Amino acid sequence: MSGLLALGGVVLVALLAVGVLALFLAVVKLVVLVVLLPIKLALHLVLLPLRLLFGLLLLPLVAVGLVVGLLAAVLIGVIGLLLPLVPLVLLGALVWWIVKLGSRPAPLAS
Q1: 108: left (phi > 0), else alpha (psi -120 to 50), else beta?
Q2: Is 83 helix (H, G, I), strand (E, B) or coil?
Q3: DSSP state, 105?
Q4: Is the Cα dihedral 29, 31, 36, 41 positive or negative?
């Protein structure tokens, strides 16, 4: 019983150590982010015109992709709506073939 209590104490101390380490690393991360924040903001301001230029250059490609995607979606929708009718069309073709086969004119005697 005392071994189980000792094991619980060891687990508690290990969790406490992990918590202290996590708090220390969180404070270090916060300090680094606060120090690097002005550099990050300046970099974003410098790169903003390039990002806008690339966005304008990619706009026609995005428009073409949108049109192709829309056409593909419409085609897939039409196929999805017509596909359940295939067995009925095949049945109708079979009935038409049987009727045509039975109503052949008699060959002419010459």
Answers
A1: beta
A2: helix
A3: P
A4: positive
Dump pLDDT digits (tens) for 4-45: 889 999 999 999 999 999 999 999 999 999 999 999 999 999
Q: State how far the alpha carbon of 28 is from the alpha carbons of 6, 19, 39, 79, in Å.
A: 33, 14, 18, 58
**Token pair for 95:** 């009935």
pTM here? 0.46
* Residue 7 CA neighbour count, 13 Å, CB half: 4
Alpha carbons within 13 angstroms on the beta-carbon side of residue 39 total 5
State how far the Cα of 22 lies from the Cα of 16, in Å rounded to an integer: 10
- The token duo for 64 is 């073409």
Helices (H), the chain: 2-82, 86-102
